[in-house]
Amino acid sequence: MKPKVTMIAWNQNDNYVVTAVNNHLLKVWNSSTGQLLHDLVGHADEVFVLEPHPFDCRIMLSAGHDGNIFIWDITKGTKTKHCFNMIEGQGHGAVFDCKFSPDGQHFACTDSHGHLLIFGFGCSRPYEKIPDQMFFHTDYRPLIRDSNNYVLDEQTQQAPHLMPPPFLVDVDGNPHPTKYQRLVPGRENCADEHLIPQLGYVATSDGEVVEQVIGQQTVDQDEPGLEPSILDGMIRQLQLEQDQRTGADPESAPSGPQNGEGTPRRG
After folding, report:
1. Beta carbons of 8 and 17 less than 8 angstroms apart
2. CATH number of this structure's domain 5-126
3. SS3 180
4. Where are the stretches annotated Disordered (predicted)?
């Protein structure tokens, strides 16, 4: 097999360079002389993640498609910590990305099954307030383009950035309780009746009929106790300024793509 480098990273003070090779080895080099210092053995598949510790120049994290996550002391060439991403009933999950927290006490990883893995010191209580599966009901919805070539949500015929905040659902599209819906920015102060999505039955491409969130109740911005959306106000202001510059008369405007009334251009 011809060796190929799959990933490269400098440590925190740039004294060392770590390379991941497709023979599953990690190699530690002196960045000034180019001397090979250590071969790090442990991975059983290709490695595409190398992440230096934010302030400890000795520490380097590696993760790969074998589901292994290693913390290395690259000055000694030794393994400090090993974690394995085992998924019950499905084998291991390939790790696609990892990042340290700014304080270096935690790191988070994402895997091939859509999981977010958080490692660190202390208890997991702060993370228990959120459900195990979190998706927006608008994820993967089809988009179309209008006559001006602007992108619209196919179902609501609205520009995606002008749509109301989405609902949180599980992997099967079932909405989460209202206490979780308030975690979505823009829904923090909504009344309970505005946190209950409208469900309906839709047919999939293979003919199967499934229950999904097909619409959402929007919040009236004039309702007492609710603040108007700052983003919507900025969009209206930008649209007003552009209308003033173009004369605000669509018939007298020059030819070419112009902002439709229902699909203002993003600032």
Report:
1. yes
2. 2.130.10.10
3. helix
4. 239-267
